[in-house]
């Protein structure tokens, strides 16, 4: 299996090979009409080839860019592979993009066509299409209302599958024979935590290198079954899900089921019974909180078992087990862990966390509950996976594991992590200056600070550009402090600041569920904004901050804090689609409030 990935010239070739092996077995699954329905590998391959040839029939040529604007669904995968099979380059875009975001990507990429899934997603896109005047064609997956337009033509999804499947397959095979590992597969725009998104050119070899490294971990540490199943939840327009949630399962011949959304994720997990899940840390934090609350409500034996499991897990993680921990773990393993595992479908082999740092306490929680947690590390510019924890190397929650196969790591004098290998991007689309600043002598400068421990595992300290340097020159890693704050039941979200200042301050969004419970207990009306004005409410949140401060060094302690006006969300542009906070946006909005904390 690994040799197939290593020898593949491009992603479409690998997909067609797996489709030929799998035939009529299920490949893509989605909830349609109240039940889970699947498309076979054979059907998917036919659709990919037919769509590719119909894209060529529209006049698209080698190297043309095609934007893909859709929620996660089987058609996303079909469209992505078909764009590449047509010789074009996929430009995935977030479904949360505003008209301005779409305009930037259309203008920057010069996309000749756009595939969009729904009427709702067309609305912010339509104005950008009119303004840019670059795209010639818009293909609607669902039925779209044909708005007045100038300069581009609308096409129905079902009209893009005309022709003979065998002839289309032959044409695709002839075309992709000329596509090599060094050719651009997609341009993925970074989510922009620090400014306008930049288009990262990922070549076929970068993604193939990534999936080979990830597949090796699955094969050697967990084994690959015939009915391996991934549940796709993160946006496919994000490099992490694009590689880990789409091309990794393709590379190992696994099924992909598409979750219906966050509100139905828990039930989707139980229904689809995945074996692998690729998720961001924020979701694990939410799941941990929900499980703990549910068990605590049960009380009695269930709560005692959970506390025992956590105590044993923490000692094991610290390398300080106590006599009798084996028996305690066996008891928990018989009475509690099966129930927790059942909430995840009962077949889960591993949950892989990436996209942002995972708080060790969250990782220890899931490990203690009998769920294998692997923390990975990477960035869009590296395909995106650079390293990942694996059982064979010894899982350590403080690290992101050893570098994957084909990846070389070097630590610069200032502590920055440098990466070299086939996974490194070709550069930023139409941005040579930024490319030269990021890739020097073949080494990708990640902007992350860290070191390699005595077992060869990478330990991330913080983002180089996010590092807070106080007025005395002390360095503070904000993500560490923020991660500790958001583990408190009172705190939903947090951002800390203090660059060139005498101490650290915080901006806090109280947890909505905890706030509701507090209001009930205090006999207060539930109003998130008004309750923040109450001294007793502030004191309750202050107590949570003080608990965190006990475990922080003097320079890391949060001395003062203010409440945010509302949660950080994708809609208010204070959070990226991969659930990382946009510091520059938040600081800009709350600059006066944060500065005021140094005068109080």
From TrEMBL:
Gene3D superfamilies: N-terminal domain of ligase-like
Top-level lineage group: Bacteria
Signal sequence, renumbered to the chain: none
Keyword Nucleotide-binding: yes
One example GO MF annotation: ligase activity
UniProtKB keywords: ATP-binding, Ligase, Nucleotide-binding
Domain AMP-dependent synthetase/ligase: from-to ranges: 17-429
Keyword Oxidoreductase: no
Cross-referenced InterPro entries: AMP-dep_synth/lig_dom, ANL_N_sf
Alphabetized PANTHER family for the sequence: AMP-BINDING DOMAIN-CONTAINING PROTEIN-RELATED, LONG-CHAIN-FATTY-ACID--COA LIGASE
Protein name: Long-chain fatty acid--CoA ligase
Organism: Qipengyuania mesophila
Upper lineage: Bacteria, Pseudomonadati, Pseudomonadota, Alphaproteobacteria, Sphingomonadales
């Amino acid at each position: 299996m690994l040799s197939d990935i290593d020898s593949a010239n491009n992603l479409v070739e690998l997909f067609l090979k797996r489709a030929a092996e799998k035939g009529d077995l299920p490949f893509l699954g989605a909830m349609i009409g109240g039940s889970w329905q699947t498309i076979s590998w054979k059907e998917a391959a036919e659709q990919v080839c037919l769509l590719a040839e119909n894209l060529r029939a529209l006049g698209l040529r080698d190297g043309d860019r095609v934007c893909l604007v859709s929620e996660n669904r089987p058609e996303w995968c079909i469209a992505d592979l078909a764009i590449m099979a047509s010789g074009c380059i996929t430009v995935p875009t977030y479904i949360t993009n505003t008209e301005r975001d779409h305009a930037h990507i259309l203008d920057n990429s010069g996309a000749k066509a756009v595939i969009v899934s729904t009427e709702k997603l067309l609305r912010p896109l339509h104005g950008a299409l009119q303004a840019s005047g670059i795209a010639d064609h818009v293909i609607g997956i669902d039925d779209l209302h044909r708005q007045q337009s100038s300069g581009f033509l609308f096409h129905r999804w079902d009209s893009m599958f005309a022709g003979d499947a065998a002839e289309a397959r032959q044409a695709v095979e002839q075309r992709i024979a000329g596509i090599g590992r060094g050719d651009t597969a997609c341009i993925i725009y970074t989510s922009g935590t620090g400014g306008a998104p930049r288009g990262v050119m990922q070549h076929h070899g970068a993604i193939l290198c990534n999936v080979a490294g990830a597949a090796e971990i699955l094969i050697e540490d967990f084994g690959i079954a015939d009915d391996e199943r991934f549940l796709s939840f993160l946006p496919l327009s994000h490099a992490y899900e694009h590689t880990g949630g789409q091309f990794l399962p393709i590379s190992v011949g696994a099924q992909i089921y598409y979750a219906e959304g966050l509100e139905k994720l828990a039930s989707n997990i139980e229904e689809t019974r995945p074996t692998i899940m690729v998720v961001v840390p924020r979701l694990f934090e939410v799941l941990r909180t929900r499980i703990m609350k549910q068990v605590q409500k049960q009380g009695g034996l269930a709560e005692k078992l959970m506390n025992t499991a956590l105590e044993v897990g923490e000692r094991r993680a610290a390398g300080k087990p106590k006599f009798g921990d084996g028996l305690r773990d066996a008891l928990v393993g018989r009475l509690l862990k099966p129930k927790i595992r059942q909430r995840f479908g009962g077949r889960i082999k591993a949950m892989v966390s990436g996209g942002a740092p995972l708080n060790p306490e969250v990782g220890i929680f899931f490990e203690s509950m009998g769920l294998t947690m692997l923390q990975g590390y990477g960035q869009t510019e590296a395909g995106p996976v650079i390293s990942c924890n694996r059982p064979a190397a010894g899982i350590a929650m403080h690290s992101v594991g050893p570098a994957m196969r084909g990846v070389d790591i070097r630590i610069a004098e200032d502590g920055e992590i440098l990466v070299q290998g086939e996974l490194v991007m070709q550069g930023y689309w139409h941005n040579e200056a930024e490319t030269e600043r990021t890739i020097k002598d073949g080494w990708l400068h990640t902007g992350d600070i860290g070191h390699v421990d005595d077992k060869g595992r990478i330990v991330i300290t913080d983002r180089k550009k996010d590092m807070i340097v106080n007025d005395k020159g002390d360095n503070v890693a904000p993500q560490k402090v923020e991660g500790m704050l958001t583990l408190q039941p009172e705190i939903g979200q947090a951002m800390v600041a203090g660059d060139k200042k005498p101490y650290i301050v915080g901006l806090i969004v109280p947890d909505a569920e905890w706030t509701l419970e507090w209001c009930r207990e205090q006999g207060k009306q539930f109003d998130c904004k008004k309750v923040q004005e109450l001294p007793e409410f502030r004191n309750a949140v202050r107590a949570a901050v003080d608990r965190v401060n006990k475990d922080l060094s003097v320079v890391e302690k949060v001395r003062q804090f203010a409440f945010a006006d509302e949660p950080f969300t994708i809609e208010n542009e204070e959070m990226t689609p991969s659930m990382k906070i946009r510091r520059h946006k938040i600081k800009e909005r709350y600059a006066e409030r944060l500065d005021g904390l140094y005068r109080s």
